[in-house]
Amino acid sequence: RKAVEKLAQLRGIKLKDADFSFIFGELSEVAEYTKPISNHIFKIIKRNLPGPFTFILDAGNNIPNFFRKSKKTIGVRIPDNNIVREIVRKLGFPILATSVHADDEVREYMTDPSLIHEKYIHSVEAVIDGGYGNIDASTVVDCTGGEPEVIRSGVKDLEF
User: Fold this and answer.
1) In which order are the strands placed within the sheet that holds 95-97?
2) How far apart are CA 55 and CA 75, in angstroms?
3) What is the pTM of this model?
4) Cβ(132)–Cβ(113) under 8 Å?
5) Which residue from 44, 46, 113, 138 puts its CA 20 to 30 A from 53's CA?
């Protein structure tokens, strides 16, 4: 819980208002942390991951209680980034993630690993230089209803 509170503090938000995502290494790991999904939803998720998508699913019992008290859903990500997926594989469990936001209008500032390091070196345990990031948002898809609903269009369109 302390780590999650620290992440919310780094973002400048209250924990109850946080919409963090869980990053998984493989799609097969997701079922352990979510309620069962239909074959139709599974096929759509499988078709689009890994990639720049966040799929909102109903949280399962393996999600800590302090998450499920305020929200009954979780964001699921499997980025098309070998570094972060390998970290998750080595850890053996998903990691909690959030976007880095710039305090000003210079969005590129938060894509440069050396500038991110400069800003957060005293606030985080490590900054991993995986090269320059992307400033385009992921597509967010709510899968908690009968059909998936795109609630934020991002860098890539959902393939049905």
Assistant:
1) 95-97, 21-23, 73-77, 53-58, 139-142, 149-152
2) 5
3) 0.90
4) yes
5) 113
